[in-house]
Amino acid sequence: MSALPLSGIRILDLTHFLAGPFASMILGDLGAEVIRIEHPTHLEEARKTPPHFMDGESVYFLSLNRNKKSITLDLKKEQGREVFLDLVRNADVVFDNFRPGVTERLGIDHAKLRLIKPDIICCSLSGFGMTGPFSDRPGYDYIMQGISGLMSLAGEPGTPPEKTGISVVDHVGGLYAVIAILASLVQKERKGTGQLSDVALLDSILSLFTYVAGFYLNAGDVPKKISASGHPAYVPVQNFETADGYIVLMSLTEKFWCATCRAIGKPEWADDPRFSSSANRLTHKQELLDLLIPLLKTKPSDYWLDALALEGVPSSPINTLAEGLEHPQVKARNMIVNVPHPVAGTFRTLGNPIKMPDKDTVYASPPLLGQHTEEVLAGLLAYSREKIVALRGQGVIR
User: Fold this and answer.
1) Is 96 a catalytic residue?
2) Number of separate helices (H) and strands (E) present in the chain
3) By C-alpha distance, which of 289, 284, 183, 175 is closest to 237?
4) Which one of 86, 170, 358, 360 is the catalytic residue?
């Protein structure tokens, strides 16, 4: 087995809560040395997040912070900033999710950091980004789901706006931060230069609207909620009730529509002029659904799923999360892993979705607060025992 692709890359992680830690966890999974910098006395919110704890350790925090080290450092103190600058001299990336202006006030913004390390890479992940009239406002996932228009599309027609079941904006913002950092590392490798990336949660979620935004921008078509989680361009692509539950059926192409007709015992529907093309099925959507909905209610989900699978039609049950995590495909892909923890014991968590068969997969324990402070200061920075004791006495470290 060879080393992971980011082995040898060192990232100073100033992020907190969800979006930033999710991103830095991915980078750690890919082999980077991620050093979390936490305040000595003000506990990071994720470490306190309820409702579930394992011997005092928040499951929320544990789920977002494997493959990282933790040191404590008070960046508001001059001595703390001096330690941080020493770390920057030995790092490749500084990653934060402060509001714009915070790094400048602390004296650790990209313009200052590049004076001591010209090729340093900085990535700043915030709610609204560094520019624009809302840049200084707090930005959270729920806020972005509302302001972007995402909540207007969730749920059934005629119902109040709804948020998604997970913090999708935070997660996609974290993914874009990873992309920005990886792109910057490629540039550094090729040109020897660092750069600053400005990633906003609002921009990130808007980017996912793609063709839906295109329908509005080019045709004035404002997207609306669609019954049964349907698709704005294809029919039948939605949830359907069966005799004992619900399934997802996706007849996206003519091939799949013809196969669907065979699977449900209605091959003649494929030749019906109302339904013979994607455009015709969209025009006659309600007529088709009026036939299909009662038919699918006549037999149980497993019957239809077996018939559809036999014809190669994309379809699935609608599982609970528990059922999804227990799915044999999930288990076969090692998406549930056991991670040892010095306090919480064995912690079960989601595995890395990026599979590299020739690489060693590592799942190091999420760190205790300040667990690696002395290791990093004495090892990486070669600080003496006396200096470390003095920093602790000054309240700079824990």
Assistant:
1) no
2) 18, 13
3) 289
4) 170
Are residues 65 and 90 in contact, defined by beta-carbon separation less than 8 angstroms? no
Q: What is the pLDDT of residues 51-70, one digit of tens each?
A: 999 999 999 999 999 999 99
Q: Are 68 and 32 in contact (CB under 8 A)?
A: no
Amino acid at 148: S
Could you tell me the residue ranges of all domains in the chain? Answer: 10-208+331-393, 228-318
Q: How far, in Å, CA of 384 to CA of 398, rounded?
A: 16
Spatial CA neighbour of 86 closest among 393, 394, 387? 387
Q: What are phi and psi of 120, to 5 degrees?
A: -65, 140
Question: Taking the domain 10-208+331-393, which CATH number applies?
Answer: 3.40.50.10540
For residues 184 and 93, is the Cβ–Cβ distance under 8 A? Answer: yes
- Quick: pLDDT tens for 202-255: 999 999 999 999 999 999 999 999 999 999 999 999 999 999 999 999 999 999
Is 228-318 in CATH node 3.40.1280.10? no
DSSP SS3 for 378: helix
The single-letter DSSP state of residue 132 is S
Work out the burial of residue 323: count CB atoms within 10 Å of its CB; fewer than 13 is exposed, 13-18 middle, 19 or more buried.
Answer: exposed
The DSSP symbol for 2 reads: B
Strand, coil or helix: 201: helix
74 touches 396 (CB < 8 A): yes
pTM higher than 0.90: yes
